[in-house]
Design goal:
globular; Rossmann fold; alpha/beta; 414 residues; 6-stranded mixed β-sheet; 46% helix
C-alpha cells in the first residue's frame, strides 16, 4: 500500500486520531527506516469472556499487524486489580489476584481468533508495575497535576454529587501511562471512553523523555438493542465463543439501521463497498434481510470458520424463513380470559424466570412473535414491556421466540 492507502485503511472506522498529522509522519518514517511501529492495546481481564464490542479495537490492532507493524497485546493483570474508573459512578471493588489470573488465561485464546499468534507480542503490566518501589510511584505521581486529573468527566460528576472518589482510582491512569513508557509505544489503541487515560499516557511519556505516542480511538459498539453499548450485564451482547447458530441468530435480530454500523466496525469490507450495499438496499435491488445474512455469516466465519458460517445461515433459513421449526418445540394451549401482559405470558410459558427479566429482555428487543395460523408467518419483534395481549387480537397458532428459545402457543377463547 502507498502511505495514503495505509492511512485510509488504518483510520477506517476510527473515532479520532490524536494528533492526526503525526500518523502519516510515523508511517513514512517506518517505511524509510524499515523499523515497524510499536502499536499496543491494553486490556484489563475483568471478565472471562470477550464479546463483539471488545473486538472493534482488536480488529484495528490486527490491521496494523497486517501492514507489518509490531502488535503488542498488553494484559493489564496488575491494573485490573485497581479497576479503570471510566464511566463508573462509584468506586467498584477491586478484583483479587486469583480472579484476574483466571480471566487472563481465557483472554489470549479468544484474542488469537483475531490476532496472529506467531506475530503478536504479549506482555503483562505486572512485569514492571509489580516491581515499582514507593519512590517510583511517588516520582510518577509528581509528573501530573491533581487539577488536571479532576477534569475527567466521571470524576467531576462524582465531585459535583458529593460522591466518594478513592485515591487508588486517581492512580489508575498514571500507572497505565507507565505501561506506555515501558513499552516505548508509537501508537496506542483504545475505545472513545478511554480518551482521557490515553492522553495522560502521552503526557507521561513526554515527562520520561520519550516521543509521545499517537492515540487512535475506536467507537463504542451498540448492543443488540441498538441503544446501549454492548455489555454482558445488559444482556445485549454477542460472545465470540458462542455457538455459530446462536451468534448468527443474535446478529439477525439487530435493526437494519444498526446493520451498517456493524459492517463498518466488525468486518473488513471497504467503505466504498458498504456504501454501495447501502445504496442497493435503498434502491430496492438488494433486500436488507439478505444483506444482514451476509453480515452474520461473515462474523460467524471470523470466529468459527467459513463452513460453520455457511451452516449457521442454512440453519437460520430453515428455521425462520422456511418456517421449518424444530420438531421438539414446546407446545401449549392458552385459553383467553382477560387481557394478559406480554411479560407475564413469557414467564408463564417458562421463557423467562421472572417478570422483571422478561420486561428487560422485551426492552432489549430479544422477543419476537410469528403468526402461524395463515401459513405464511412473518416474524415481528415486540419491544414494549407494557404490551397486553387481548383475546380479539391473538386467536390461533403463534410462535414466540426469546433469544434462541421457542414455544408454540395456540390461543383460544375461553
Amino acid at each position: 500500500m502507498t502511505i495514503d492507502e495505509q492511512v485510509a485503511y488504518l483510520t477506517r472506522g476510527a473515532a479520532e486520531v490524536i494528533p492526526a498529522e503525526e500518523l502519516r509522519a510515523k508511517l513514512e518514517r517506518a517505511a524509510a527506516s524499515g523499523q515497524p511501529l510499536r502499536v499496543y492495546l491494553g486490556v484489563d481481564p475483568t471478565a472471562p469472556d470477550l464479546h463483539l464490542g471488545h473486538t472493534v479495537v482488536l480488529r484495528k490492532l490486527k490491521h496494523f499487524q497486517e501492514l507489518g507493524h509490531t502488535a503488542v497485546f498488553l494484559v493489564g493483570d496488575f491494573s485490573a486489580m485497581i479497576g479503570d474508573p471510566t464511566g463508573q459512578s462509584e468506586t467498584r471493588p477491586p478484583l483479587s489476584r486469583d480472579e484476574v489470573n483466571a480471566n487472563a488465561q481465557t483472554y489470549l485464546e479468544q484474542v488469537y481468533k483475531i490476532l496472529d499468534r506467531e506475530k503478536t507480542e504479549v506482555r503483562y503490566n505486572s512485569e514492571w508495575l509489580g516491581k515499582m518501589s514507593s519512590y517510583d510511584i511517588v516520582r510518577l505521581c509528581g509528573h501530573y497535576r491533581l487539577a488536571r486529573m479532576l477534569e475527567r468527566e466521571d470524576f467531576r460528576s462524582r465531585l459535583d454529587k458529593n460522591l466518594p472518589i478513592s485515591v487508588h482510582e486517581l492512580l489508575y491512569p498514571l500507572l497505565t501511562a507507565y505501561d506506555a513508557v515501558m513499552l516505548r509505544s508509537d501508537l496506542e489503541l483504545g475505545a472513545t471512553e478511554q480518551k482521557f487515560n490515553l492522553l495522560v499516557h502521552r503526557e507521561i511519556q513526554r515527562e520520561y523523555g520519550l516521543e509521545p505516542q499517537i492515540v487512535l480511538t475506536m467507537p463504542i459498539l451498540e448492543g443488540l438493542d441498538g441503544v446501549r453499548k454492548m455489555s454482558k450485564s445488559l444482556g445485549n451482547y454477542v460472545g465470540i465463543n458462542e455457538a455459530p447458530a446462536e451468534m448468527f441468530g443474535k446478529i439477525m435480530s439487530i435493526s437494519d439501521d444498526l446493520m451498517w454500523r456493524y459492517y463498518v466496525l466488525l468486518t473488513d469490507l471497504s467503505p466504498g463497498k458498504v456504501s454501495a450495499l447501502k445504496a442497493a438496499v435503498a434502491a430496492g435491488s438488494r433486500h436488507p434481510l439478505d444483506v444482514k445474512k451476509d453480515l452474520a455469516r461473515a462474523i460467524v466465519a471470523d470466529f468459527h470458520g467459513e463452513q460453520k458460517g455457511a451452516d449457521a445461515q442454512r440453519s437460520f433459513e430453515k428455521q425462520f424463513q422456511e418456517n421449518r421449526l424444530p420438531r421438539d418445540i414446546p407446545y401449549q394451549n392458552w385459553y383467553f380470559g382477560p387481557p394478559v401482559k406480554l411479560s407475564r405470558l413469557l414467564v408463564d410459558l417458562k421463557l423467562y424466570p421472572s417478570n422483571t427479566e422478561a420486561q428487560r429482555k422485551i426492552r432489549e428487543g430479544a422477543v419476537s412473535v410469528a403468526d402461524f395460523t395463515n401459513g405464511s408467518p412473518q416474524w415481528r419483534r415486540l419491544t414494549d414491556p407494557t404490551m397486553e395481549l387481548r383475546p380479539g387480537e391473538y386467536i390461533g397458532d403463534y410462535v414466540f421466540r426469546a433469544g434462541r428459545r421457542l414455544v408454540r402457543v395456540c390461543f383460544s377463547p375461553q
